[in-house]
Amino acid sequence: GGFDAARFAERAVDPQVKAISIKVSQGAKPGLGGLLPGAKVNDEIAEARGVAIGTTVVSPPTHRAFDTPLGLVDYVSELRRLSGGKPVGFKLCIGSRREFLAVCKAMVERDSTPDFIIVDGSEGGTGAGPVEFEDHVGMPLTEGLMFVHNALVGTGLRDRVKIGASGKVATGIDIVKRICQGADFTLAARAMMFAVGCIQAQTCHTNTCPVGVATQDPWRARALVVDDKVHRVRDFQANTVNSAQQIVASMGLDSFDDLTPRKLFRRVDPQVTQTYAELFEWLEPGALLAMPPEGWVRDWTTASPETFEPKLSL
Question: Is the pTM above the cut of 0.90?
Answer without folding.
Answer: yes
